[in-house]
Design a protein that fits this description.
Elements: H1 11-41, H2 47-84, H3 88-115, H4 117-123, H5 131-141, H6 145-160, H7 164-188, H8 193-217, H9 230-265, H10 269-296, H11 298-306, H12 310-347, H13 354-371, H14 374-389, H15 393-419, H16 427-457
Length: about 475
């Protein structure tokens, strides 16, 4: 299986070869949790409360996975830049350091979450009714923390070398296995939410095994051990902080949203958390592939940034922007057709009734509100990940924080405070997506000429590993 030629003048070909497998891989990654929720929502008698328990766990499991992106999407752009500089030794050093950090971080995260599981679930929106189901799922899910974080990080280095199909196969194989194991464990063996978690852990192990095998046996720059460097680790963490913030803040605002809904909803708190679970699941079907477009194409930008090929970067970024724009336009139109049947899958026939119909109606309403912000969100994703791909962490971090912490959180809290209506909280996402897309676009077009001028003036050895603090990425 040949790797993609990252320096190819026909950038559209390279973008498609990288983006399409990355989109599918991200979509499949999203389906892990969605498939679990659909099956769990259809458990006879306890499907609704079980789904609420998984809704409380969903942002926590996403937060855990985001630590894989912290290192994977921090090291992969630096890796691509080194390849563009024709420096495989430097690339190998980055990969070995990233692998060691993935091992350490996964162990620390698993221990931390196990020690705080009860207080964490209650703080993040679990009620007395949903807590047992949330704790059961998360307890067993944490067993696979190592496989989840390490595989997520390693897959980014397959894409960074142009092996996007290997990366896709690692994720796709695991998802297929998860879909097969879920009904077996949940219904046939009668394990319920425990079975959903066990199926996910086994699937994550398969993804980890395949990613490790491809990097050891098939990659142009294989995984090796040694050449560890604190300065390299710091640069990986610095650059990875932006995609980590995007992923982690998505989790944190879901946790905050669940907490606000539980507080403002009163007796209807669980109802609104279940609705939010369905709405966020639908949105992730769009933002997952969108992340595949924006992050999957980073190797083209990073490689040509390392090679100082500014015209090719401009050409590629324009094509990536149009790709993201038309994809979100298509998803926006499609949402009006699919929002209802999608929502109905979560309540199922076994749990039919007036309450289920109310959940579906509310989910459809709020899905459509979310989708009105999805098109401007494409510019946020493409431009922020584009800056990250070129090693511009100090800009991408600020723009990432702006969307979630500067715009979303105040909007959510103000809407909840002044309206006292939990349904108004769903408008915070629309406000954040529209405003952040506008702000990021303006900032990007102001900054990018300066970034290109600075890069053309630099010597190759000033990039990636030996920049001083003033110019560090």
């Amino acid at each position: 299986m040949k790797s993609v030629d990252l320096g190819n003048e026909k950038t559209w070909n390279s973008i498609l070869k990288l983006a399409l497998p990355a989109m599918l891989a991200q979509l499949v990654n999203v389906l892990y949790n969605i498939v679990d929720r659909i099956y769990v929502g259809n458990i006879p008698s306890v499907g609704s409360i079980s789904l609420i328990g998984l809704g409380v766990c969903a942002p926590i499991t996403t937060l855990i996975t985001s630590f894989g992106y912290l290192i994977g999407l921090g090291g992969a752009p630096l890796f691509s830049i080194a390849l563009g500089e024709k420096n495989p030794k430097k690339a190998k050093e980055i990969l070995s350091n990233a692998f060691l950090m993935l091992l350490i971080v996964s162990a620390l995260i698993m221990l931390t979450f196990y020690l705080s599981i009860d207080s964490m679930l209650y703080a993040f929106g679990a009620s007395k009714a949903s807590f047992p189901y949330a704790k059961t799922y998360l307890t067993f899910f944490l067993i696979g923390t190592f496989f989840s974080i390490v595989s997520t990080g390693l897959i980014q280095f397959l894409t960074a070398q142009g092996y996007s199909l290997f990366a896709m196969l690692s994720v796709l194989s695991a998802c297929v296995l998860n879909v097969i194991l879920d009904p077996l464990f949940i219904f046939t063996l009668g394990l319920g939410v425990k079975g959903a978690a066990i199926a996910t852990v086994i699937s994550q192990f398969l993804s980890f095994s395949l990613a490790l095998y491809f990097l050891l046996q098939k990659a142009t720059v294989p995984l090796s051990f040694g050449s560890y460097s604190i300065s390299t680790d710091i640069k990986i963490l610095k650059l990875g902080f932006s995609p980590f913030i995007i992923m982690a803040s998505d989790s944190l605002i879901l946790i905050l949203l669940n907490s606000v809904l539980a507080k403002t909803g009163g007796d209807q708190g669980d109802f609104y958390i279940e609705v939010a679970t369905i709405v966020q699941a639908f949105e992730s079907l769009v933002t997952g592939p969108l992340l595949g477009i924006s992050s999957g194409t980073q190797p083209v930008l990073g490689y040509n940034y390392g090679a100082k090929n500014v015209p090719l970067i401009k050409k590629a970024e324009k094509q990536i922007m149009m790709f993201g724009f038309f994809f979100t336009v298509f998803c926006f139109a499609l949402s009006f057709l699919l929002s209802r049947p999608f929502s109905q899958m979560f309540v199922g026939f076994s749990n039919a009734g007036s309450q289920s119909e109310a959940i579906v109606d509310a989910s459809v309403r709020f899905i459509r509100i979310y989708m009105f912000g999805i098109i401007p969100l494409s510019f946020q994703y493409v431009f922020v990940d584009g800056l990250t791909g070129m090693g511009q962490a100090k800009y991408s971090i600020g723009l990432s924080l702006n969307r979630k912490l500067v715009i979303y959180v105040p909007s959510l809290l103000l809407l909840a405070y002044f309206t006292k209506d939990p349904s108004s909280c769903f408008y915070a996402e629309l406000i954040a997506d529209v405003l952040s897309g506008l702000v990021t676009s303006i900032v990007y077009f102001i900054l990018i000429p300066k970034i290109f001028r600075k890069r053309l003036a630099e010597k190759d050895e000033d990039i990636v590993l030996v920049q001083d603090d003033k110019n560090s990425i």
